[in-house]
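Page 47, continued from p. 46.
Same chain as before, 300 aa.
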Amino acid sequence: MKEQIGFERLTGLIAFARAGALGSYSAAARSLSVSPSAISKSIQRLEKHLGVTLFTRTTRSLVLTAEGRELHERALRLLRDAEEIEQVAKRTRAEPAGTLRIAASLPVGIHIIAPLLAQFCALHPKVTIDLRLNDQVVSIVDENIDIAIRIGDLADSNLLARRLPPYQIGCYASPEYLANCAPPEHPNDVIGHQTINLRYQNTGQLFRWPFRVGEREIEIVPSSTVIVDASEAVIAAMAAGAGIGMASNFMVASLVRDKKLVPVLADFTVERRNITAVWHESRRANPAVRAFLDHILKHL
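Result:
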């Protein structure tokens, strides 16, 4: 079992690293805000423990020995790591500022992120938002993205991730459409209605409508009178009275609130937990990223 390093040896290594880099005990003492004698004693104790002489000392100079040169780079690495820890801690306490680059799909960007930006910017006036909407998954490293909000199952990666609250997928129609026909009472009844469906742009496949029936989840692909390749067009067609469509509840919340859309087959809606915020390790201590993540989790 390896012996754990003690506090005294750790301070000795820091003193050695700084003295070797600056060329004198006095300069090292000034940079560390201690006395030259404290530096000298720490290095002497370190030399005694290691059993090597680290410096050749004269009245005018301080020169690393061959053994000292070999160990100095390692000691410098330790000092740099300690300084980086301090900088990370300072950034953690810092006020969010600068440009925050956010990537999301069009539906998530329009219906989840954009409505939260006014309040976020009011809380953090030093942050400017660069929101990039694209239904294709972008590389947050290559595109220099600070945080991405993704919908769907995540591929294995080394990105940090935080799952956002669940949402529901269900059917909706306009009051005008439902005034002219009896609403369906079971998913199988959708077959007899005019429907609007989504065709995925990247695969050309039609969206399979999911329903929760008892303990099972079933899927139906209706023979739709209207097929579009953007979810916003599904919603617009539903609101215009073209028929029944399926959408996520966060996408139609305002239309339902304004009574422009009505839930259909509400007892058969399904729940999804696949909206995730992801960011790279290098953004872990970014105050703007942390502030935005806290904000979106608080308001969803």
